[in-house]
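Sequence design from tokenized structure. All designs in this work follow the same two-part layout: the structure record, then the generated sequence. An example of the structure record is given first.
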């Protein structure tokens, strides 16, 4: 039986779960590209691989309550924002389409910053 202090909080479950889902999303895209199930450019696949790996690492270190979990949350945020910001030039999107992507990048940035703060001050 776990003591009260060693139990994972609901917030930690949510953070770990969200990072896990985000990693699965990115890594499935990589697998689909490798299996020729989509035609994404190689640069996009590389960014997906970096983002998925960072999210998986953030999920694992958060779940394990590692002192580096907050750093991986920030690394995920940086790589995800880089990926989203690169979509316009990589895919040749129109400027009105890119505007919505930047809103998504802002949401991802806020989430990763909040998760990093939480993991730094409440967990590690």
């Amino acid at each position: 039986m776990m003591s009260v202090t060693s139990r994972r909080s609901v917030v930690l479950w949510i953070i770990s779960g969200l990072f896990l889902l985000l990693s699965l999303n990115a890594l499935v895209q990589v697998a689909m590209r490798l299996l020729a199930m989509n035609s994404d450019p190689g640069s996009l696949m590389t960014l997906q691989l970096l983002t998925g790996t960072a999210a998986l690492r953030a999920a694992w270190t958060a779940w394990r309550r590692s002192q580096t979990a907050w750093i991986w949350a920030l690394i995920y945020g940086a790589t995800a924002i880089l990926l989203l910001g690169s979509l316009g030039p990589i895919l040749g999107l129109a400027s009105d389409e890119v505007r919505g992507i930047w809103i998504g990048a802002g949401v991802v940035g806020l989430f990763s910053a909040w998760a990093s703060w939480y993991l730094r001050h409440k967990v590690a």
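The chain has a mean pLDDT of 91. We note this feature because it recurs in several other targets discussed in the main text.
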